[in-house]
Amino acid sequence: MSDTSFQMDPQPSAWQRFKDSHFFHSFKIDRVAQLSFLIFITYVILALGAPLLSPYDPYDLSQVDILDSEIPPSWEEEGDERFYLGTDAQGRDMLSTILYGTRVSLTIGICAVLLQAFLGIVIGLTAGYVGGRVDSLLMRFADIQLSFSTMMVAIIVLAVFQATFGTELYQDLAMIMLILVIGIAEWPQYARTIRASVLAEKKKEYVDAARVMGFGRLRIMFRHILPNTLSPILVISTVQVANAIISEASLSFLGLGMPVSQPSLGSLISSGFEYIFSGSWWITVIPGVVLVVLVLVMNLLGDWMRDVLNPKLYKG
Known about the structure:
This protein is mainly α. The protein contains 15 helices and no strands. Belongs to the binding-protein-dependent transport system permease family.
């Protein structure tokens, strides 16, 4: 009797599993999601490549001439070919400041959301898994936090910091302060969502099996339960990046965000607002359009991810 050999099928690679997933299939058939993702990636590439792509360095005072201030875009009659999008009130090239400003706005938005997610995940996991008085205490603290708007908390904290330590120190630490304030103010969004998912997941068999095997709480929470709650986190994060960018722009417009010497999209809009009625519309309008498009594509991606990752909305 001859031996019969069995050849097992090779396991598909991670990329192959991703290509066969519902997530990738939905992306291929959704033109709005594809266009939004393409625009967002373009923003990221332009922001990362700002030092290489910018015609001028807005941080280098030797490349800025006040005599070049408020020059219209090159397609207008009084425009200058050196400045395709014109110049601002300080004589800086608008294209260069927008590229650098986009990098600053994206950095603040992404870092603030990472801080939100870290705090919210840790607190939400702890509240949902431990339960009892710990759950009640953490969720009441989250309710108190939610009763204050992000803008109100940010305005109070940043104004007090600026008044206490001076404008010069605040300008040096503006990006760090914005990340901390926006990040800490928005963590309850993650905590409440994660807690709800953990309450459903911790009753399942795989969690009971992990307990029987002797795994500790932290391992069960972060190695077993957390990976099964990532879908809502991705959806929230996409929208929260857009909200963080809007918050930074609003604070910069109020004079509590990035200083004019370190341009963000919000500070560019703020610096040009007083000139918009004098005819220098491009100083505010062009950064405003860039900001609106960025926030729009982030929200569109968030809506698409919510529909795809929520099985209750999947219609087959």
